[in-house]
Amino acid sequence: MKKFLIICILFIPAIFLYSQQSVFEYVEGEVTIKRISGDLIPAEIGNSIVPGDSVITGRDGYAELTLESNSTITIDKDTVFVFAQREKKEEKKSIFMIVLGKIGFKFDKLLQEPDIQTPSSVAGVRGTEFTVVTALDGSSLYVVSEGSVAVEAEGGLVVLELEEGVAVSLGEAPGEKFEARFGSEDYSGWLEGKNINFDMNPVETLTTMTETLKSYARGADDFYNQYLQSRSELESLRDELNTITDNKNDFYQKKVFPKEIETSYLVLNYRYYALSAYSLRRYVVGNMYLKTKTKYLTKQNEPVFSNFIKEYERFLGIFEKEIVPYLEERDV
Predict the structure, then answer these.
(1) DSSP per residue, 233-274
(2) Class for domain 5-198, per CATH?
(3) Where is the FecR protein domain (predicted)?
(4) Where are the domains of the chain?
(5) Fewest Cβ atoms closer than 10 Å to its Cβ: which of 69, 85, 87, 243?
(6) What are the pLDDT digits (tens) for 207-255?
(7) Binning pLDDT at 50, 70 and 90, where does residue 93 land?
(8) 258 Cβ contact list (under 8 Å, min separation 6)
């Protein structure tokens, strides 16, 4: 664990810490909030979530959240939703992560449209109503009811308009667009097909997840190294500030304050990649392991199971070595 994290957060200006809240308007069944502090609490109407929090629904769980300007998020059963943030083009960017399950979005004149992320894709939106479904194997399905959504994965880009959909397999570019009439989508059929695909190819699916994990590790490492450089430059500027007697505030505003913002953003970014990797490990690959172990409970000598366990151990080894150093105790 990185010991300096609590210290470096102390100098983040108030403008950086501010973020919009999402408030629970309706809760049904088992719905749990995992706070950025690590605390787990049952969701209740009136609760809010902020960047760093997660929402996990059980088999009978369902929740509705409201954002600014009457925008809404609906979280279906057996879903893991993470509200994250990162720096993008020198400003904070909200990231809504559908790790697993089904979520509906309706955005209405937000000041800043968030990015939508799944294990297999990233989407940008504009005043849009759409649904995203993420399967156990990391595949995603987008269906647009109003507006447009730009879905990007593995260098490919597809722009969806009214009543259009697209599927994205983990490690692949988006597929061909298809017609998706509002109210007639068969998400259960698509999810069942993906579950069958995973059962038939567990090792191949997990291997692709390992490659995704490695990409998160590269992102965390890159931004962490940038953070170290920025922190060193910030310390030098602060030392210089302590030697100045005239125009001290002017030096702070022009030199120190911008470097504080830059350093804070770099922390935000490498933490974003580390937490994305944690969600992949905890909610996706963890479920893969339980599902596969249950299936082969009495057949553990089968080559498919032994090969899956080897790949699972490789995944865990990479996670422990390349991701855990960027996590805090509260994360796990």
Answers:
(1) HHHHHHHHHHH--SSHHHHIIIIIHHHHHHHHHHHHHHHHHH
(2) mainly beta
(3) 54-149
(4) 5-198, 202-331
(5) 243
(6) 999 999 999 999 999 999 999 999 999 999 999 999 988 889 999 999 9
(7) confident
(8) none
